[in-house]
Amino acid sequence: MSVKLRKPALVACVGLLAFAATACSSGGSGSTSSNNNDTNAGAPANSNVPPWCGAKKTSLALADGFGDNNWRQVATAEAKAEIAKCPNVTSFSYADGQGNTQKAISDIQGLVAKGAKAIVVFPDAGQAVLPALRSAYQAGAVTVPYRVSPGGKAGVDYDQFVSTDFKQAGVLWGQWLVKALHDKGNVLNLGGPPANSQSLAEYEGMQSVLKDHPGIKFVGPTPYSVTNWDAAQTQKVITAALAKYPKIDAITTDFGSALASSFSAFSQAGRQIPAIATEDSNELACDWQKDKDAGHEWPLFTVSSQNAMSRLAVDVAVAKATGGVMPSSTVYPQTPFEDSISGKPHPVTCDKSLPMSAFVSSSLTPAQQIAALK
Amino acid sequence: MTISKESAPGPVQSPSGAPDTGILRRIPAGRASRGLITICAATVVLFVVSLIAQPDSLSHSSLQGMLPFAAVLAIIALGQTLVIQQGGIDLSVPGTVSLSVIIVTHYPNGDNGKLFVAILLAYLAALAAGLLNGLIVSLLGLSAIVTTLGTNALLYGLVISISHGSPTTTTHAMHTIATKQFAGLPYAVYYAVVLTALVGFALKRTVVGRRFEAVGDNPAAAKMAGLQLYRHQTAAYVWATLLYCTAGILLGGIITTPSAFQGDSQLLPSVAAVVLGGTSLLGGKGSPVASAIAALFLSQLDQFVLTLGVNPATSNIVQAVSLGAGVAVYAIRWSAVRDLLRRLRSRSEPVEA
């Protein structure tokens, strides 16, 4: 399905999002003007236009391999808000691959055939979509895959891959565990499907820190217990781990919401919820708040869910297509978000005005995020 | 044991007198089937092995964690049994379960007051899906695989349009309905036991149930006996989806924040439970009680392997081997094996002499 914004709609969108852009800008830019004046060709429309938005006009498309979950919806809304900052992006199309590799491939080809000059791709199917990326690149469209590596090479198969270092998330979790467990304790690590690169990299990151702290040990299968990022499976895994290991001091997981569903397993086993290091989730934060209010506080640390990563991919694609200034890095940094112990960089934040499926770390305004998740 | 295809009854002389004679009389109802005996024995063996190899997997908290999921799978397996008894297969399990979960979590959105209406809506949606499956398969004669796959896609369309893929936290009342305990067991277990007893009784002890099995066992003979095939076949799909819906509602309560695609992982285990329970994929012969016990077997096997803490590859192999062994019990002609062994023995004796 493709959602195409016509020029008036884009201008309206720019106006609507202008205020948000001020607060959200990842590149430090200010609000954008809805003035889309052709006479300014060759120079930014005004001083508030971010440097990545060059003088040439372009049309941008976002091809999402799978668009129907809360993370993707927020990430897509972030991308749209970013695009709205650049008046020289004259049209925007979106396609949802619906988890179907064939559709994801034909989406990329279709968007380029329809005249998209720049295309940002979430290549869920990895290498399977590489030929489609290559043909888009060879057809002259600026092609920017992000977050999941499609293999291939920048400059040969596509313009630029915007990546993130999941190992760094593991490093941050490891450093916090050392602090939270005072150098001693058992850690249960949960991950997604077997052999997925994200969960493996996170484990490697933790290992790189914890190897110097022999008092902290992993219990359960390593590198991680397979949960398939499924709430029911997570609950079964937690039940089994609680039965087998009388002492679990911390749990690390890359899907905090699924873990929140398993809290009843702790009460069933008559156990306290241990320290948790994960990615931020409004639901998890609100559960933490509820337990804190009830006097059962547990230590919580989160890294940002990185929904705003789509903004960096947009910046790169638009900079290449419009002749703007390329961002200084194409690697989106892993950053700590909440820490219940130090309160830095943020205390645990439950935002009751947002849906439980929202991400407090998102750079969207609450209204934008509510609209994105509707 | 019920009749096989080969021993299906011949033409009945008077169709009007069918209920009392011929076809129905030849399907015994009271005896425990071979499937039921086998799966009961296998389940006992599994629990004994669990007790010896990994007693933690039978600890109180472990059982409390496993039983609600076993109950959900048992209820789904009951529905799948009905469909498979009619020679069909229902691939719309994931869509129906996911849609039920989504309706009962998204519509109330945490408000207990809206839960009753949400449950009604979920059953209405399931009824519509069941009728769609049943009528297309029975009246238009389309393949069950194609029809239910199509319905599943349609249901997923609804799931995505309602939820946009986002999970929603279940209401407090829903959680209580599914997981509160009575006499040390979660409510979900009682629902599963009652539903299994009802379906088992209806199939084995009522005229309607005996007709239902007769239609599944030999549609041609049943038709000649004056039974209306489409009515029984449609009923199988409708009752099945209503059972999946019940399971979905329970699943929504057990998992406090179920995902939008929570039914995905239920399809294969539901078919596995039916096969392990000894229901013939060709239709007819089947036992709802055996399917429900097979669901308990599969859930405990899952929990046992998880508690062992083996790597995912070993875990998959253990489950596949168990399933293969279970199916082999029915697939292998043991009489032929016995004959072969006897022949081999008799051949070896003269040599020794």
Give the neighbour order of strands across the main sheet of chain B: 1-2
Uncertain parts of chain B:
1-27
Order of helices and strands of chain B: HHHHHHEEHHHHHHHH
Order of helices and strands of chain A: HEHEHEHEEHEHEEHEHHEHEHEEH
Number of helices of chain A: 12
- Distance between the ends of chain B: 42 Å
Rough shape of chain A?
A: elongated
Overall pLDDT level of chain A: 86
Low-confidence runs of at least 5 consecutive residues of chain A: 1-45
Q: Total strand count of chain A, please?
A: 13
Distance N to C terminus of chain A:
17 Å
Give the averaged pLDDT of chain B, no decimals. Answer: 85
Tell me what portion of residues of chain A adopts beta-strand conformation. 15-25%
The share of residues in helices of chain A is 25-40%
* Class per helix and strand makeup of chain B: mainly alpha
Q: For the largest interface in this structure, which chains are involved and how many residues does each contribute? A: A-B, 40 and 40 residues
Taking all Cα atoms into account, the compactness measure Rg of chain A is 22 Å
Percentage beta strand of chain B: under 5%
The largest sheet of chain B is: 2 strands, antiparallel
Overall shape of chain B = globular
Can you summarize the main beta sheet of chain A? Answer: 7 strands, mixed
What does this protein structure show overall?
The complex is a heterodimer of chains A (about 375) and B (about 350). Chain A has helices spanning about 5-25, 70-85, 100-115, 130-140, 165-180, 195-210, 230-245, 255-260, 265-270, 280-295, 310-320, 365-370, and strands at about 60-65, 90-95, 120, 140-145, 165, 185-190, 215-220, 225, 250-255, 275-280, 300-305, 330, 335-340. Chain A is of the alpha/beta class and about 375 residues long. In chain A, strands 6, 7, 8, 9, 10, 11 and 13 form a seven-stranded mixed β-sheet that branches. Chain A has a four-stranded parallel β-sheet with strand order 2-1-3-4, with helices on both faces. A two-stranded parallel ribbon of chain A has the order 5-12. The two termini of chain A are about 15 Å apart. Chain B has helices at about 35-55, 60-85, 95-105, 115-140, 145-165, 170-180, 185-205, 205-215, 220-225, 230-255, 265-275, 290-310, 310-330, 335-350; strands at about 180, 185. In chain B, helix 4 (about 115-140) packs antiparallel against helix 5, helix 4 runs antiparallel to helix 10 and helix 11 crosses helix 12 (about 290-310). In chain B, strand 1 and strand 2 form a beta hairpin. In chain B, strands 1-2 form a two-stranded antiparallel sheet. The chains are: A alpha/beta (about 375), B mainly alpha (about 350). The interface of A and B includes residues 238, 242, 261 and 269 of A.
